[in-house]
Structure formats: structure tokens, C-alpha cells
Design brief:
GO terms for molecular function: endopeptidase activity. InterPro entries: Rce1/LyrA-like_dom. One of its GO terms (biological process) is proteolysis. This is CAAX protease family protein. The chain is mainly α. It has a domain of 150 residues. The protein has 9 helices and no strands. The N and C termini lie far apart (123 Å).
Length: 282
């Protein structure tokens, strides 16, 4: 040590090395109960928002179609009349198979799936109804000119529908005609949409197809399932906006409403024809 210089100040003792990965983290209180054992009355963790996949597929659609065709042939055989079909037989032949097919589709979703609200997207909202009205009215801009072209190609005498042919020559009063109008304009579209853009759509997407593939398949089968060969191209045009309503909303009610809007004019023409107001071919 040199005389005249102050003694050096010793360095402060260094801090002890950290003993854990987060030495600066404040101590945490222990959990009020073991992680694997919640006390009585404690809220359960929220369940997953995604429902389980439904357990029905193409076979469900095939079954529904078999029921539709089988009941149609059975009613036609039981109510056959050599003098021609009665109005009751025609109404039963049009309504029972269609309603039976839709009811079976709904039952399948309950027994083998999560119910129609989840599996078929059958949840009604004002937004979906508005979208269906827009798609339906927009579809008329396309389907009405397409119908005029169809009449010009096949001729007025051949430009009729299977429903119009079934009621050909039948005259009824306004109460029955109003019932037929409701059947064609509202009931039939509801049931057909449940089967095609509900059940068939869900069966196609279950196997990994996207919504555009489902749109193409359901549109084609919908047009072909009417069993009217000459009208199939026209039915394809008619089905386009109905299917697009399903594509862009992701739910069934929009396509139901669009289909009902599309059927309003034909249903009105048929009701007038049944009362003798216009020819049945219109």
C-alpha cells in the first residue's frame, strides 16, 4: 500500500445466481384446488362449439328418393280411374310423396345427426329471408326470358309441366284452386329444398366436397329429378339462383324463399287454369 493514498473501496458483493427460469416473476398463489379435481359447484369448462359430424350421407338421399318414387307409384295405382284422375287423386299424388320425402329427411337428421337446424342449416333469420327474396326476384330476370325461349323452341302446345298435365281438363272452385296454389307455391318448394339443398347438399359436403361442388351436383340432380326431359335445360336455369342463395348464405331458408318466389307465377297460372280463367298449358 502506498502512503498518502486512501484505501480502495471494496466491490459490493455480487447477487447470488438465479435458481429458477424466471427469478424476477412474483410468487404465485397456489391454486384453490388441485388441477384435476374441481370443487363441487365449480363451473365446467366450455364445450367445443363445433358439433359432431352427422352420421348420414348419400345413402340417406337414396332412401328418400326411393320413398318418393315408391309412394308416387303406389298412390297412382291405388287411385287410378278409367275415366281420368280426380282432383283429389292429383292433389294427393303431388303432395303426399313430396311431404313424405321431406319428413323422412328431417327424421334422418334427428336420428343420425344433430337435427335439421345444424345439419341442414334450417335456421330462419330475417337476413336469410331478405336474401332469398333478392335471389328469387333476381332469378325471375333470368328464368322468365328462358321460359319464353323454351316456349318458342318446343311450341306452345308442348310447353307445359308435369303438374299442368296432371291437372289438364280438371275444373275446381276457388277454395280448391287456392289450396293447389299454396301447395305449388309454398309447400312443394319447402319440401324440395329440404331434400336437395338440405339432405343431398349435406351428404355431398360430408365426403369433402366444397360448396361449389355441392351446388353443381344438387342443381343437376334437382333438374333431372323432375323427369321432364325437354324441360331439363330450363330447370337448370331456374335452379341456378336458388342454389346460389344456398351458396352465399350457407343456410337453407334463403334457397327455400328463392324457390317459393320462383314458383309464384306458375302456381298462380295453375290456379287460374283450374277455375277456367286461363289454359292449363300456361
Amino acid at each position: 500500500m502506498i502512503v498518502g493514498q486512501p484505501d480502495p473501496i471494496p466491490d459490493p458483493p455480487s447477487a447470488p445466481p438465479p435458481t429458477g427460469p424466471f427469478p424476477s416473476a412474483p410468487p404465485q398463489d397456489p391454486p384453490p384446488y388441485p388441477p384435476q379435481q374441481a370443487p363441487a359447484g365449480a363451473p365446467e369448462p366450455p364445450a367445443s362449439e363445433d358439433p359432431p359430424p352427422h352420421r348420414w350421407g348419400i345413402g340417406a338421399y337414396v332412401l328418400v328418393e326411393i320413398l318418393f318414387l315408391g309412394s308416387s307409384f303406389l298412390i297412382a295405382a291405388l287411385l287410378a280411374d278409367p275415366e281420368g284422375p280426380s282432383v283429389a287423386a292429383v292433389i294427393l299424388g303431388l303432395s303426399v310423396p313430396t311431404v313424405l320425402a321431406a319428413a323422412t329427411a328431417l327424421l334422418i337428421t334427428r336420428v343420425r345427426g344433430n337435427g335439421p337446424r345444424i345439419d341442414l342449416g334450417l335456421t330462419w333469420t330475417a337476413r336469410d329471408v331478405a336474401a332469398g327474396l333478392l335471389w328469387g326476384l333476381g332469378g325471375l330476370v333470368v328464368s322468365v326470358p328462358a321460359s319464353l325461349v323454351y316456349v318458342a323452341v318446343v311450341g306452345p302446345d308442348n310447353a307445359t309441366t308435369a303438374v299442368g298435365q296432371a291437372f289438364d281438363g280438371i275444373r275446381v272452385g276457388w277454395p280448391v284452386a287456392l289450396g293447389v296454389f299454396v301447395l305449388v307455391a309454398f309447400v312443394a318448394p319447402l319440401c324440395e329444398e329440404i331434400v336437395y339443398r338440405g339432405l343431398l347438399w349435406g351428404a355431398v359436403t360430408k365426403h369433402g366436397a366444397n360448396r361449389w361442388v355441392a351446388f353443381a351436383i344438387t342443381t343437376l340432380l334437382f333438374a333431372m329429378a323432375h323427369f321432364e326431359l325437354t324441360r331439363t335445360p330450363l330447370l337448370l336455369v331456374v335452379a341456378l339462383p336458388i342454389g346460389l342463395a344456398r351458396v352465399f348464405t350457407g343456410r337453407l331458408p334463403a334457397s327455400i324463399v328463392a324457390h317459393q318466389v320462383n314458383n309464384l307465377l306458375p302456381a298462380l297460372g295453375l290456379a287460374l287454369a283450374l277455375t277456367g280463367g286461363v289454359p292449363a298449358s300456361l
